[in-house]
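Ligand: sulfopyruvate. Inputs:
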Amino acid sequence: MKKKNKTIYLTLVGDNFNLGHANIINNAKKYGKIIIGIMTDSACVEYTSLPHFSYEYRKNLILKSCRNIYKIIPQKTLDYTYNLNKFKPNYVIHGDDWKIGYQKKIRTKVIKQLKKWGGKLIEIPYTKNIPFSENRKQFLQSNTTADVRKTKLKRLLNCKKIVKILEAHNPIGGLIIDNLSNNSEKKYDEFDGVWCSSLTDSSSRGKPDNQSLDLTTRVNWLSEMFEVTSKPLIFDADNGGSVEHIKFLIRRLEKIGVSAVILEDKIGIKQNSLFQDQSKTKLDTINNFSKKIKIATKNRVSDDFLIIARLESLIVGQGINEAIKRANKYSKAGADMILVHSKKNTPNEIFKFAKKFKKSKFFKPLVAVPSAYPSVKEAQLVKNGFKLVIYANHLLRASYLSMFETAKNILKNKRAKESEKKMISIKKIIELIE
Ligand code: SPV
Ligand code: MG
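Predicted complex:
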């Protein structure tokens, strides 16, 4: 077969187009017509983080950067089998770095598939001196605009079984969420974003969670968080203030790149939902709260910014039927997701709610905040219709204990030596930030 009739297949994520990619494409040209499989968001989250840019954006970036591309197609899984069988390329080209690690299995499968039609694998030396993680950090630093950050939550919801959000009350907490991953089990895992909690925002400033820390102050400090992180953030807006004020809050949050707001159906001076005595807590009327949701949805620029309605019926002991009634109304008013809050020490009550709500024509994906029932496993939440889990206060609780113990020990020992082993070294903290 003449070269001009041959095809060569390669895959790219295409987020951070660099020398390595250019090298592969230049080599590929020598063999035939280039078919590029762009990894979809779902394919990427099987083994790594969500790409920074959306599929469409990455596709356009590749089209703009390279000439002589015959076809661009989505590769929907890490496994090449489907695309290879469909296009039966004469060659597949890849860097030789995939002979080890998680890609080894994929490579073996590619070789097996190609054999079926006499295709060949071409491996070129991996382009060195592009330290991926360093590059990635710099790339994220300079490419995280408000809009790109905002859309990430919806993209994650579209491609993950469950989206995992962790509270951070300062930018260093945000950096932990941005950078931590777990490769020790079979599947890659990481937190997907930040919860901006009214409880921990207030407590970390020595104030009660009763709106004494005003919303403006809370929204303003997000610029510091956003300066150094790239993952999406969900904002806890309590009840969002009065009907007249909601639209201003929504516009501000969306404009700065927040991905979702959670509004709760309580009124009056609030107290935290986890307090035992809720006798003073009042729920909003269904009509008034639905009005807030409608205003919120009407005033967002794009539906990539999510409006999440939070039900407090179970917190105040009004039972599952009342919660279902409200969930249906809030969903009808336009809420994208429903958070059903509970302070019971097992998830039974929210699972009962979920079972009933799943049958409703107004069903929306559910959000859980397992502060009171921490033994629930994420897999159980998925099974019961939950799509988002918020670990709402854990970094604050952990750091408070650590700060308290350190302070106590320095005071007791009249020196700091005994506390050193429980602290990160100064060298590490400098390296971390740099
Ligand atoms: C928060 O984190 O501020 C919340 C969740 O709203 S809870 O504390 O459980 O009310
Ligand atoms: Mg709160």
